Amino acid sequence: MLSVPVIGVLALQGGVREHLDALAKSGAESRSVKTLEQLVGVDALVIPGGESSTIEKLARNSEMLEPLREAIKGHMPIFGSCAGMILLADRVVGAIEGQESIGGLDITVERNAFGRQMQSFESGIAIAGIRDPQRDFDGVFIRAPWVLEAGTGCEVIARITSGPHEGRIVGVRNDTILATSFHPELTADYRVHEMFVDMVRKL
Amino acid sequence: MANEVSTGTGRVKRGMAEMLKGGVIMDVVNVEQAKIAEDAGAVAVMALERVPADIRAEGGVSRMSDPDMIDKIIAAVSIPVMAKARIGHFAEAQVLESLGVDYIDESEVLTPADYSNHIDKWKFTVPFVCGATNLGEALRRLTEGAAMIRSKGEAGTGDVSNAVTHMRKIRSEVLRLSSMSTDEVYVAAKELQAPYDLVAEVARTGTLPTVLFTAGGIATPADAAMMMQLGADGVFVGSGIFKSGNPAERANAVVQATTHFDNPDVVAKVSRGLGEAMVGINVADIPVHHRLEDRGW
């Protein structure tokens, strides 16, 4: 039982600062992880939003893909938002040639599924398992992916509830991995980060 | 339960720029270059007909790119595609929005269309990035609805000195504001020629409310690393990549150096064997009336 877990944010590219802030406000100690040495010192990791093809390439060049896969196999808790969700998916639709996934989560993700920036949107969504779940969460979707299919080991915690994409899966978790299509780190609502910190504490 | 779906919100526009942080946005003029940029790990490409070095060499009026060319690049890559509109040319911006580009750069690299007014960017769903040489200019662009700021530097030169000047200037002005007592902020707003509310917000938070990238003259991995150490959130590279001897290698090297800007060993390693850098022009050798940094106000 870790009362104040140390949670790293993979700091190769993307919305790193926002996750560091949100984690610090959710009861964790947060730090940037850019190298293998820094990965060793953390209890859990967040893979932020950004460009999944860029983050993957940088992780590969830093020889971090395999260690990340090992960490996930060793049950290190991981939370990925947007690009992070893509990197954690076992199967990716719409990846660029040669783009690998870190994997670990039994889902099929479609990249940029909601469309281009013109289609990026905000919408209230219900998320299962967060504190005060009857209160909607402000979902910020930016060129966001969706989950085409979630395996039996995955719990679906959020779906789009209205509009043309009603019913699409946008949040999933299992015991150690949490993934969202949207960016909770871009809001001042920390309930998703709190849920992740709880997951880390329980291990 | 039905929920409202809102596009083009401030959070979605600024958030898009937040997701580009730590990344490199590369100027490309065709599909082949766009694919090289994507493969090298660029976070976005800027589709334009001529890179700034050629605009500078060839002269003439420089305008928005051909829609066919932008379409082809959008179809060829999965990363975001940006495109440039002339300063004040809201109809070019409308065309770019209709093409579905992900970000519009209202850019001094093109010939300005309006020497008094910039585009009213609040009217658009697509977000805008604008250049700035100082904090007042950055805040005026935000007032008009820009969701991302970049330093202007001096595009098409391969001379990083103006990008350095602008980045240092903006950062030092932010620092100065944040150390002021509240009664001094009113005069600061007057001096910066920017709205008081925005100036007060910067004074209170000690940071710009949007992402601040660097642009204009970045040609080498070390240039990118220096700009990141000076506080840039990310890097635009224009002519520096595809006007060099080995674009694919250089693109990859600039991406690595931007991420590992604080690790000289990595910057040294990726700087090896890149071949010729772009042939540069010293900013000091360019007649003042040919400098792009003075376009926009």
| Silhouette of chain A | globular
Beta percentage of chain A is 25-35%
The CATH class name of chain A reads Alpha Beta
SSE class of chain B: alpha/beta
Report Rg of chain A: 15 Å
Shape of chain B: globular
Structure description:
The complex is a heterodimer of chains A (203) and B (297). With 203 residues, chain A is of the alpha/beta class. Chain A has one domain: Class I glutamine amidotransferase (GATase) domain (Rossmann fold). In chain A, 25% of the residues lie in helices and 29% in strands. In chain A, the strands form 3 sheets. In chain A, strands 2-1-3-4-12-11-10 form a 7-stranded mixed β-sheet. In chain A, strands 5-6-9 form a 3-stranded mixed β-sheet. In chain B, 56% of the residues are buried. Chain B has 297 residues and is an alpha/beta fold. The chains are: A alpha/beta (203), B alpha/beta (297). Chains A and B meet through α1, α3 and β7 of A and β1, α1, α2 and α12 of B. β7 of chain A pairs antiparallel with β1 of chain B.
Keywords:
heterodimer, A: 203 residues, alpha/beta, Rossmann fold, 7-stranded mixed beta sheet, 6 helices, 25% helix, globular, B: 297 residues, 8-stranded parallel beta sheet, 13 helices, 9 strands
Topology:
The complex is a heterodimer of chains A (203) and B (297).
Chain A: E1 6-10, H1 16-24, E2 29-33, H2 36-40, E3 44-47, H3 52-61, H4 65-73, E4 78-81, H5 83-88, E5 89-93, E6 105-110, E7 121-125, E8 137-141, E9 146-150, E10 155-159, E11 169-173, E12 177-180, H6 191-202
Parallel strand pairs in A: 1-2, 1-3, 3-4, 4-12, 5-6
Antiparallel strand pairs in A: 6-9, 7-8, 10-11, 11-12
Chain B: E1 5-7, H1 10-18, E2 24-28, H2 31-40, E3 44-47, H3 52-58, H4 67-76, E4 81-86, H5 90-99, E5 103-107, E6 128-132, H6 135-143, E7 148-151, H7 161-178, H8 182-192, H9 196-205, E8 211-213, H10 221-229, E9 235-237, H11 239-242, H12 247-259, H13 264-271
